[in-house]
Amino acid sequence: MILFIAGATFVSTLVGGLVALKLKDQLHLILGFSAGAVLGVAFFDLLPESLDLGGRYHGHAAMTAFVALGFFTYLILDRLVFLHAQHAHAVNGSEHETRHVRRGMLGAGSLSIHSFLDGVAIGLAFQVSTPIGIVVAVAVLVHDFSDGINTVGFILKNKGNEKDAFRWLIVDAVAPVAGAGSTLLFHLPEATLSVVLATFCGFFLYIGASDLIPESQHAHPKSLTTLMTILGAGALYAAIRLASL
After folding, report:
1. Beta carbons of 13 and 176 less than 8 angstroms apart
2. What CA dihedral angle connects 225, 35, 4 and 109, to 10 degrees?
3. What is the pLDDT of residue 103?
4. Hey, where are the domains in the chain?
5. d(Cα 152, Cα 112) in Å, to the nearest integer?
6. d(CA 71, CA 68)
7. CA distance 100 to 150
8. pLDDT in tens, 112-148
9. d(CA 175, CA 119)
10. d(Cα 143, Cα 117) in Å, to the nearest integer?
11. Between the CA atoms of 76, 80, 81 and 87, what dihedral angle is there, to the nearest 10 degrees?
12. What pLDDT is recorded for position 136?
């Protein structure tokens, strides 16, 4: 049952990514939607889940500190290790390209790890009970479609080609299957899982607010891309709310 549902997440992620590849000429709109979806995952999924799981172990103040830790850790990686594009004017073209690719890998890698944790969440939910597992699985299935869009959009935005985007899409699609399968071998304590979720909330807040939103607005009609961002966040909110009914 768990692996069957995880297989459905593979299909959902793959379809979302293929849609993004098909519409790559409208990348600013994809990025706008992705920005809203990434922030929606952070605000409406990762943050509430981390507080629900970890509040009784660490307290809400500690959990929000883990969110901040994730945000500033990603900022350090982006600015100091991979270097943000705004600092790239001082380097030659090949170095600039390399740094963009590295940033794309960092973002796509974070999304893939999140997808792995989605699979872990499915498996752990089924360890609690089948009804809870089904609710979690529906939520994951719905927003994995956006995960596929986000992964492809992030690679293409950072100078990656279609082959790179497709490779990362496969990684992202396989990740929840691997995550769900891994729960057959272990039981992750709620206290630990809550910290992981809070940290990734910080990651996604940074990706959405500091990267995807500014890039989607750059040299494109702001009203339409802003609408796509709101639609992306709204779609994730609606999906998560419906899945929890």
Report:
1. yes
2. 130
3. 67
4. 2-243
5. 11
6. 5
7. 16
8. 887 887 788 788 778 766 766 776 676 677 667 777 8
9. 7
10. 13
11. 120
12. 67
**Residues whose CB is less than 8 angstroms from the CB of residue 177 and which lie 6 or more positions away in sequence, other chains included:** 3, 6, 7, 9, 10, 119
Residue position matching structure tokens 């597992």: 133
Nearest to 68 by CA among 205, 222, 183: 205
Taking residue 75's Cβ as centre, other Cβ atoms within 10 Å add up to 15
Q: Which residues of the chain have pLDDT under 50?
A: 83-93
How far CA 140 is from CA of 13, 99, 243, in Å, comes to 10, 31, 9
